Amino acid sequence: MNAKAPELRPLVAKWAEDPDEVDPCGPSPILIHLPQLRKLTPEWLALSFKLKRDEEADKVFGWVLEMWGYTIAASRLGIRHLVWNDFQTEPSSLWHSTLDGDPHIYHYTFGLEYTLDGLPVTGVGDWSLDKRHFMGQYPPRHLDAPPKCAGRAAATLTAMFNEASAAIGDWPEDTAPHGTLGWANVNGPSAVNNAPALATEEAYQHSKLAKAVVARGAWQWAGKTPVLFFRSGRIYTPWGSGTWSIVGDAHHDAHHEAISVALGDACATWHLTFSKDVRTFTATRGKPWKPHTTKGTLAKPHANDASRPPEPERADGWETRHDQSAIAKRLIGSGPWAWQAVAPLAFLPNGRLFTPWGRGVWWPHDEQPNVIQCNFVGQKHVVTFDECWSFTSVREKDGDQATGTAKIEPPPKECKELQPGSSSDDEAEERVNT
Q1: Residue 174 domain flag
Q2: Rounded to whole angstroms, how far apart are CA atoms 267 and 413?
């Protein structure tokens, strides 16, 4: 509700004399004197109807249109507000998840969605607390606690649910089939027919192919890059996030294995078989008698400059002793990460670093166990990780600070390069063959 936002100001100016006088608030919650409310209500109602009939306002304001009706009406009538940030909070797993400050009201609108290891997700998480799950039935008693690294909002709301159900003696026995676990398998956006289970840490450690596809770094699929495989069965693609798992016999060499990748309802599930040297792959989906096939290969480090040397297997500055450091064991293959909300960022073996701005290097700090140093696009940074999925960075040159988190993008909505007859698919196959 920010009338000063560049994308909203021109529209607000059509209905309010001065957007700077439009307070950043809606009508809920609000403490107001009754005479002021009686004065405001007719204008609020009339303006809301006018906004609804205006095609642009209806499209831009959407489901909060009547809230804009309230705040613009108040501005027209000279009624101003004291906006008190601690009055209420409206968290999700992606914003205000730590319940900033000490709010008096928890405005329960958005679902809280996390992976089991505490990464916030878009869509339905493996751990999910969303009122929409309980539209027709009461939630079960004793909801499972959120993951350790989930935000404070998740723990707070779960405790409130459990306190209420425990205190009500005649809580119904006929409750919803799930509490906070199990919803992703029912109606999650990434749930598709025959979707693979996640690649568990145990499966990863016993699979030569799994280690290879994660360690090699960025891949190119159907002419698009980057594709990055992460431990815990997560995959980053140019179309959106997905999951992957091992298929085949992990006790033999990598050539006896394959990988199954689920890219959501829009882009289906793919069976990836790799070359013996694990540098190219063939991806297949569809019926056995009518398959659709695409190709993939390792991405070039310098896609726009073929004359530059290939990326070394071991980065300068990485020493054998670094392999055994706690921070290296934690970071290698973990993620996907984002730097200042820009993804993907990947910490690869032997000190290789993949960033959205180009390849780089990283190495553990010699004295601080939760700190690394890295260098990309000609700048050195000192990066400190917390115990969960966040970090802070200080640039060596000027002390500029940045932050980062693990970040799982939404599943794909479309993937035209993976569709039959795609020109990019034909070009990708030609590149692989040559």
Answers
A1: yes
A2: 8
Q: What is the pLDDT of residues 85-116, one digit of tens each?
A: 889 988 988 888 888 788 899 999 899 999 88
Other Cβ atoms closer than 10 A to 109: 9
Q: DSSP labels for 281-312? A: EEEEEEETTEEEEEEEEEPPTTTT-TTSPPPP
Residue whose entry in the numeric block shows the structure tokens 């159907």:
222
Q: What does each C-alpha distance from 36 to 33, 46, 77, 78 come to in angstroms?
A: 5, 16, 10, 10
Question: For the residues 219-232, what does the mean pLDDT come to?
Answer: 94
Q: How far apart are CA 164 and CA 175, in angstroms?
A: 15
Residues 246-298 pLDDT 10s: 987 544 455 578 999 999 889 999 999 999 999 999 999 987 778 899 999 99
Q: What residue type is assigned to position 114 of the chain?
A: Y
Which segments of 283-353 does DSSP mark as H helices, in order?
A: 326-331
Domain range enclosing 15:
9-76
Does the residue 69 lie in any domain? yes
Question: If we measure between CA atoms, which residue out of 21, 31, 35 comes closest to residue 80?
Answer: 21
Q: Give the CATH number of the domain where residue 364 resides.
A: 2.40.128
Tell me the C-alpha distance between 15 and 47, whole Å.
9
Residue 245 lies in a domain: no
Residue 413 inside a domain? The answer is: no
Q: Does residue 72 sit in the same domain as residue 91?
A: no
- Half-sphere exposure at residue 49, Cβ-oriented, CA atoms within 13 angstroms: 5
> What's the average model confidence in pLDDT over 154-177?
95
Rounding to the nearest 10 degrees, give the CA dihedral for residues 129, 135, 139, 144: -10
Domain check: are 355 and 383 in the same one? yes
